[in-house]
Amino acid sequence: MAKVTIQMLQSMKEKGEKITMTTAYDYSTAYFVDKAGIEVILVGDSLAMTVLGLDSTVSVTMEQMIHHIKPVVRGAHDAMIVGDMPFGSYNQSPEQAVYNATRLMKEGGCDVVKLEGGKEVADKVKAIVDGGIPVMGHIGLTPQTISKLGGFKVQGKTVDSAKSLLEDALVLQEAGAFSLVIECVPEELGKLITEKVKIPTIGIGAGKYCDGQVLVFHDMVGLFEKFLPKFVKRYANLGEEVLKALQEFKNEVKEGKFPSDEFVFKGVYEEELKRLY
Ligand SMILES: Nc1nc(=O)c2c([nH]1)NC[C@@H]1CN(c3ccc(C(=O)N[C@@H](CCC(=O)O)C(=O)O)cc3)CN21
Ligand SMILES: CC(C)C(=O)C(=O)O
Ligand SMILES: [Mg+2]
């Protein structure tokens, strides 16, 4: 695979080839996600939950995002790297949005940025794109505004809210977004938005008709147990595997089985050493 570009993702939509994206927050995870041929890696602000143990993404800072984007860039060869803009880094003004998107790209090294919201962020999206940085939109359940939404709930369940989300998608496309994440909406709405916009949609809990799918790495491999959204499929149970390995290590050390001979360096001077006692 060659380096994934926004043009490649656009042509995948046009050909009906599905796009895949997962999160990664460190070098070794990015290495494996890239090796698997996943096209897009999101350094998500979900690192609040998966890496930092917080209950929401709201307090994540620019410094924390840059800190995690850097090793992901080192671990990935071909995948497109998306830097998630943290809450408060783009809401104030188009100038603030351009400033912080530029920091994620220059200091972190990501290829593109993502930010949450619809019509209310269109001016920020346009400013960042005009500044030379591609933007992925993110609509539906927008975890950074959880206080307004009243919880991690499915969005667009009424006709009015569905209509408003479709308008958001069209406005973001018009503002220059190259792709859209659609989170936690009924499948029919994921389908409608995907058909109405020309840019690729990447769904999480938005059904099978989106142009691509994204999952949080820790969720899909079973390394996160605090909550399990309905849309998460566990493709591995690494949590169980890791727990087994740790318990075995502990037991073997306690029983004196580890380290056995094969894991030990032996000197040739045993007899001489004995004389030192
Ligand atoms: N580990 C992890 N996975 C994620 O998918 C994720 C994060 N963290 N952090 C940021 C946001 C928060 N997300 C969430 C969190 C919980 C639900 C959830 O439990 N939703 C209910 C919907 C209830 C309803 O409205 O019917 C569910 O049952 O799926 C959804 C998305 C998605 N993002
Ligand atoms: C859930 C995805 C889309 C995200 O924004 C994140 O992981 O931060
Ligand atoms: Mg996010």
Automatic annotation (TrEMBL):
Q: How is the cofactor bound?
A: Binds 1 Mg(2+) ion per subunit.
Cellular component GO terms held in the UniProt record: cytoplasm
**What GO biological process, any one, is recorded here?**
pantothenate biosynthetic process
Spell out the catalytic residues: E183 (proton acceptor)
**Pathway it acts in?**
Cofactor biosynthesis; (R)-pantothenate biosynthesis; (R)-pantoate from 3-methyl-2-oxobutanoate: step 1/2
Instruction: Please state the Enzyme Commission number of this protein.
Output: 2.1.2.11
Q: What is its main location?
A: cytoplasm
Q: Which reaction does it catalyse?
A: (6R)-5,10-methylene-5,6,7,8-tetrahydrofolate + 3-methyl-2-oxobutanoate + H2O = 2-dehydropantoate + (6S)-5,6,7,8-tetrahydrofolate
How this chain assembles, per its entry, is: Homodecamer; pentamer of dimers.
What the protein does comes down to: Catalyzes the reversible reaction in which hydroxymethyl group from 5,10-methylenetetrahydrofolate is transferred onto alpha-ketoisovalerate to form ketopantoate.
What name goes with this protein?
A: 3-methyl-2-oxobutanoate hydroxymethyltransferase
UniProt source species: Thermovenabulum gondwanense
The lineage is: Bacteria, Bacillati, Bacillota, Clostridia, Thermosediminibacterales
* Gene that produces this protein: panB
